[in-house]
Amino acid sequence: MPDARDRSELPLTVRGAPRTPAGWRLATDACAQLDGDLLDASGMFGLPARAATRAASVSVLEPSAAGLEHLRATGEGAGRTEDLGTVRAGLPWDAAPAAYDAVVLAPPAERGGARVEAELMAAARALRSDGAAWILLEKDRGAKRYERTARSWFGAVSVVAKTQGYRLSRMTDPRPPSDAELEARVWTHAELEGIGPAWAVAGVFAGGRLDPGTALLLRTLADPPEGTAPPALDGRTVLDLGCGWGPISAWARRRGAVVTATDDDLAAVRSCRRTVDAQPDGPAATVLHGDRDGALPHGARYDLVLVNPPFHLGAGVRTALGQAFVTAAARRLAPGGEAWIVANAALAYERRHDGPEQVRVVARSDRFKVVRLRARTHR
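RESULT FIELD:
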């Protein structure tokens, strides 16, 4: 049965990649002793759920599209994955209130305190009054602070295991927040010039603000340097690959583009949907939950692909992940289409790209550059 001791290679976008952290074993070992109704909303692609062989029922909420696919692929015929009560895309606050005897979480502290607190609140809300939450945190990412904070929603918090920088806490006597309190912690809202209403789930990259790379990309698209024609937008098909909370999608939609957006992270997908739905103008936009371009219709091509590719997974640098986005952008171009990509200035995506597209760096700042890939007219 796969668990945290299974050190096999993981998909690029799966949390824990390229190999499962050994500290995750604390959560899987705890789940092996649990009975009753268990919710696994840890984002560990079902590893704790598969260890919970004594539980009466097990449900999994997995936020990563790649993680969900990995869970299903590796779970076929392995352990109790075949008879899990629920395996679906979801976030901890999607769980029904007071429905579980046990909840296991591993809040992504690298995404900020608001995200950790929202997940702790969601755990308290999902538990029955005599239930227990099992929370895995990292010592170097504020574990002790979050254990103290958790006392706002739990009457008792105790650390039950430690290993390799990880701490597992058992939290009981849940004191759930109101729906309004949880909603306020989950969502942030801002109004941005040129974009309009911006909505973001806690922990989504640069939620509700323009990060410097995206800002450079949008400035360059609107006003490219002399000798570079701006891409047409009105009525054109645009793919926002790795959409995040949706600034690029919202910007393109306001300018008349028919936008399709996709992201591996369910929190980003929901943020982008809410952001584009809040825009006052523009054609309808389609926002899909998928790893890179995996959720797109087979053979779909776009006039314009816009992307600020990730090169971090958690706190680690993953240059291969960004390169995979560039490759996906190129294969989704319609004949004569263009991909505009913003990247860290030190990353040589344009030199590593070996496709048939014409490649040019069209803008630079002190930290970033914008690369244009132009597809041949006939492909």
